[in-house]
Amino acid sequence: PTPLFDPRPALMGIRYIHFTIQGRQSDTNQVGSKPEPFTMDSPVLRNFNCSLPELRHLFPGCSSHEELYNLSINQTDLFWGTLARLRLRWNRDFQQVSDCNMETGSFRWFLGGQLNVSVNCVDRHKEKDPSRVALIWEKDEPGQEERVTYGELYTLMNQVSNVLKSQGVQKGDRVAIYMPPCPLAVASMLACARIGAVHSVVFAGFSAEALASRINDAEAKIVITADQGVRGGKLIELKKTVVTAVEKCPTVQTILVAKRTGNPVVSSPLDIDLDEAMVKESGECEPAVLDSEDLLFMLYTSGSTGNPKGIVHSQAGYLLYASLTHSLVFDCKEGDIFGCVADIGWITGHSYVVYGPLANGVTTLLFESTPTYPNPGRYWETVQRLKINQLYAAPTAIRLLLKYGDEHVEKYDLSSLRTLGSVGEPINVEAWHWYNKVVGKEKCVVVDTWWQTETGGICISPTPSAPGSEIRPGMPMRPMYGIWPAILGEKGEELKGNDVTGALCLKKPWPGMARTIYGTHSRFLETYYRPFNGFYFTGDGAVRHSDGYYQITGRMDDVINVTGHRLGTAEVENALGQHPSVAESAVVGYPCSDKGEGIYAYVTLKDGFVADAKTEAELRGIVRQKIAAYAIPDVIQICSSLPKTRSGKIMRRILRKVAADETDNLGDISTLADPAVVEDLVARHRTLK
Ligand code: PRX
Q1: 300: β partners
Q2: ipTM, two decimals
Q3: Is the dihedral of CA 662, 663, 667, 673 positive or negative?
Q4: Residue having the nearest C-alpha atom to atom 5 of ligand 1
Q5: How many angstroms separate the alpha carbon of residue 565 from the centre of ligand 1?
Q6: pLDDT tens column, 234-268
Q7: How far apart are alpha carbons 391 and 365 in whole angstroms?
Q8: How many angstroms is it from 61 CA to the middle of ligand 1?
Q9: pTM of the shown model
């Protein structure tokens, strides 16, 4: 098919600089060949891993990456419909590929289709080879890894499914999972998928209060946890946190507790020992037959206002998008060992530790430790020992390891690595080069991947692209198939052409996109589809460079990115506001070389309270108690008042400048009710340095 029009005028001018990467496939070997006729039982279905030549085999009218991209945009239903039939196992074929409306925020994919995600992630690989390794659990102590085959994962998943059923969990019920990365956490997620329950994984670093508010918002019936976590040589009291949280959660009927350390921990009348309960259950559980648009999971993420939102993903579209991006962006094939070191409590863990790799039948890593435990060589020693082929990590960890020096990397044989990925925040050029040279020995493909909890999978990344295409340091560059980025200006106008900066929006629906915010579709619409009518607004700013490549400039709203974790400044303000001494607070991010962004809190105290070390310690403590350790402000500046306009609005622009040390360039302060406040702010800021 000929593209109807080029959706990327900006990319027309791209020069693909061809060079040969040793051992990589040429993309010319399938030109002109015809695809085999497709049937649901075709062997190609079972073996398909969707590299560029294979995509061209499927869409034979396309002879280049650009033509494929154009097809994915102009003939969306043809593109996604073909891939959905080929990559997923269906109980019933779908009748319509998509029914999407950017005005109402209604998105449905693969209508009429029925399938089960757990069957796609486990059963079909177990049928082929039950002894293939599905999971490598890289425990906190190096050298203690445990392998779980697809056959074993099948049994574990079914046993957990049967335990959930015996506890009365039914299709559509919500199950909270508060566990670090471990095989039972994966089995629990898949068990929910198997019986049609909706999981809500809560990062196991969140406090009891944060956990309780997420459980209550989802009205979860069950919480699955472990006795303790082990990370960086320290014990984490998971069960204790759950017991405290559940006191405030009337909907929870059962706490399933897996054994990690076996140490005695606080108990509750709702407890059931998960390991014991599993032994009593069968290792077979009939998978529920689910509609494409039934809910698969929800995952809470921060926005600029209010409480964290439960982003909802559904079955077929999410799985297709996670699995396709996983194989194409990382060049991940059967037999590979994929090492994503993210926690399963974040979207990266959902899409690229669990669903993407398992749907593709590869071996996936569950990393329980930290980048520096027991020493800063931990990632590299793990890569050598497990022969990891693709590593996917956060820039904050890369920057940290860079500082420790090259000797920690050079000790190890990293020749198994082919792709190095980064995600979560912009990767600075220095860190990118270090990753490329010192870790990748300039032989790996380095991919800075941009995406979000809401997008389900990677949306902008240097790959897929024509083999040998150039890769620029520090930017995600190219849109994924089916992703059509747009840059919008201040007045909501689309900025066409290159060399433009503005709000990053996506112009076309894609299968992996979020469907709603749990319980509040109006907030979903307001947040993502109202700011720019007809577009999905990402919340990020971006530049489209002169050559058409995209670079992310950072959040445009009051969300900050701390060590790759997304945090709403309003959440921290709400927590601070609960301390009896606090009259008012305003929290902003500031550039921080280690963490990406640091957290700077300006606080005014009520009369009668003094700014002393004890108050500051209590303020830090309350943030830890209400949210999590990563949300604790780096700087607390107690001040006499905050800069406000005459109408009483806090001028955050000034607070950001002061926090960033840009005090010579504060801009127009004439609209402030009391411009003298600024002098005081700057003077106090200087004393903190
Ligand atoms: O600001 C962007 C930043 O992380 C945000 C999404 O956060 P979250 O939903 O927690 O998902 C993180 C993992 C996918 C984005 O709005 N972000 C993510 N990746 C990048 C990035 N910023 C710059 N470059 C990236 N590669």
Answers
A1: 310
A2: 1.00
A3: positive
A4: 452
A5: 9
A6: 999 999 999 999 999 999 999 999 999 999 999 99
A7: 10
A8: 35
A9: 0.91
